[in-house]
Every structure is written in structure tokens, then in C-alpha cells.
Design a protein that fits this description.
- With 308 residues, the chain is of the alpha+beta class.
- The protein is built from 7 helices and 15 strands.
- It has a domain of 213 residues: Replication terminator Tus, domain 1 superfamily/Replication terminator Tus (Replication Terminator Protein (Tus), Chain A, domain 1), CATH 3.50.14.10.
């Protein structure tokens, strides 16, 4: 590992912490117009992959909501949270804080949040690209040099909006679907085989045998077979932004509070509530019939359109 890369990593993390601290002070210095955030049940260690069918939401308002939002933005390391909580599952705090800012304050805040997001993107670039490490080796690299860094929180950008007419909240529960080529999957499995690593609870030999079986099952497919990665995504909070002058609604992922800048009280948006999530009570306006597919490799969420 290049020495200057380690130096860049530390410099970037330190710069991000400083920039977040400055952003926090700038927000505290501006009048708070309205704030509403929703805390979700914490994910404890060992429960990251539990099926989620219900989520109880607790609402917080005013200065308490703003303070929770600012603490949430600055939570980058394990020591910033309880030891019982999982560091594999990002802490989510949907909602919004609306602050008064016009002229110079608006420009300064916009510039500061842009700077924070630039450091976040730079940190992710160093860890995921410039390190040259495969995903399974990054954890050890990160925690060797930035002990306790919660990368999910560190990478997550902060959303800034200029006062919309309304900001309402809800839940999204979807699949990530991606068409893939047979050759891509074969190359991926061959790479996994040549890496000669084990994956718990299997030994190195057992894992190699398992991957070899997967490889043979893909090679046995007819050339006309269509492959898809169909991976379920855990339910996540979203924000729906409405602008009346554009007659346009935009939907955003909302794992962290949205920061809304308003010129004065006349611009304060309508802030909706986030209701409890219950998978059994979801009503789909329109749900198209799913294409019949067969699960070929469960761990890769790989499906195929022909009989297996």
C-alpha cells in the first residue's frame, strides 16, 4: 500500500470531520424555522440480515430534532454510538430541518455542505478505487488506518434543498434488477475461484467446490438463456418533494434529515409525517405480473428465464 495513500486517507477523514463541525456551528447560528425527524429502532449486532416486516417510528420536533440531526451528520466512528449497535447497518434518521438563511448565509451554508459532500466522495474514492483492494479486503484496510470508521455513514451525502412547497415522507420497498451476461457471471466465478479464499462457515476446499459447482451450472445454460440479478433491497425511508410552480414531485432516498434553506417564515414547507411501516398493510396501486424466472445461484441473487 502506497504511503501517500494512507496519508491521503487520514487527511481526508480529518478534513471531513472539521467540515462537518463547521457546518454544525453554521446551522446552529441560523434561526430554526421548523424541524421534524423520525428515529427508527436501532439494529443490534448480529441482526443485520433479519427480515423486516414492521418498523416503529418515533417523531421528534423543534430544537430536539435539529440537535439529533446534527449529531447524526457527525456520527462517523463506532465510538460515536453504542457498542451494542451494528456497524454494518447504517443508522437512519429520516426527516427535515428548515432553517432561515438568505443572502450571504445561504451562499455560505450551500458552499459548506458542498464541501462536506466533496470530502465524502473523496473518502469513498480513496477506499473503493485508489486502494486497489477487492471489497472483501477493504474492511481490514479501513479499520487498520481509521479505527472504527462507519463507512456507510461516512460516504452518505447530505441533501440540501431550497424551500419546496411540501416535503412528505414514506417507505420504499423494491428489488434491484440488473440484466447480466453469461460471460460476466462466468468471469466473476472464475475470479472468486482463483482468489483461493474461504467464506464462513466453509473451509477453503469446501468453498472452492461450491463455487466450481456454481460455475458448471452457469456454463451448462443454453446460449439463449437470459440472466438477471434480482436482489431485494431492505425497506428504506423516502422523501417526496413537491414544487407547485414546476408542478413536479421528486422522490429522494431519505436515510438522513434533509436540510431545507428558507428565505423567511413565508417559505416554510409543509412537512409530512412518517408513519410506522407494516409490510402486511402495503397497498400497490399497480403491480405488473412478474416475469417467470428460476433461481440459479441464491447467494448472488442470480435468476434465469429457462428451466434449471
Amino acid at each position: 500500500m502506497r504511503y501517500d495513500l494512507i496519508s491521503d486517507l487520514h487527511d481526508c477523514a480529518n478534513s471531513l470531520e472539521r467540515a462537518l463541525g463547521e457546518m454544525r456551528e453554521m446551522i446552529l447560528a441560523q434561526p430554526l424555522l421548523i424541524a421534524r425527524v423520525f428515529s427508527l429502532p436501532p439494529v443490534e449486532k448480529g441482526h443485520e440480515h433479519d427480515a423486516v416486516t414492521e418498523i416503529a417510528v418515533e417523531q421528534h420536533l423543534g430544537e430536539a430534532a435539529r440537535d439529533m440531526a446534527l449529531a447524526h451528520f457527525c456520527r462517523l466512528f463506532m465510538q460515536h454510538q453504542s457498542e451494542k449497535l451494528s456497524t454494518k447497518a447504517a443508522v437512519r434518521l429520516p426527516g427535515a430541518i428548515c432553517i432561515e438563511a438568505s443572502g450571504e448565509q445561504e451562499t455560505a451554508l450551500t458552499d459548506q455542505i458542498t464541501l462536506v459532500n466533496q470530502y465524502k466522495a473523496r473518502l469513498e474514492q480513496i477506499i473503493t478505487v485508489e486502494s486497489g483492494l477487492p471489497s472483501e479486503a477493504r474492511f481490514e484496510f479501513v479499520h487498520q488506518h481509521l479505527r472504527g470508521l462507519i463507512t456507510l455513514n461516512a460516504y452518505r451525502t447530505i441533501t440540501l434543498l431550497q424551500a419546496p412547497d411540501s416535503l412528505r415522507f414514506g417507505w420504499a420497498n423494491k428489488h434491484v434488477i440488473k440484466n447480466v451476461k453469461r460471460e460476466e457471471i462466468i468471469a466473476q466465478l472464475e475470479k472468486s475461484l482463483s482468489a483461493n479464499r474461504a467464506q464462513a462457515p466453509w473451509t477453503r476446499e469446501q468453498w472452492a467446490e461450491k463455487v466450481q459447482e456454481e460455475l458448471e451450472s452457469v456454463r451448462a445454460l443454453p446460449a439463449s438463456a437470459r440472466l438477471k440479478i434480482k436482489r431485494p433491497v431492505k425497506v428504506q425511508p423516502i422523501a417526496r418533494v413537491w414544487r407547485a410552480d414546476e408542478k413536479k414531485q421528486t422522490q429522494l432516498a431519505c436515510p438522513s434529515p434533509v436540510i431545507v434553506l428558507c428565505r423567511d417564515r413565508t417559505q416554510v414547507p409543509v412537512l409530512g409525517e412518517l408513519l410506522n411501516y407494516n409490510a402486511d398493510k402495503i397497498q400497490h396501486r399497480y403491480k405488473p405480473a412478474a416475469e417467470p424466472l428460476n433461481l440459479l445461484i441464491p447467494r448472488l441473487h442470480l435468476w434465469v428465464d429457462c428451466p434449471i
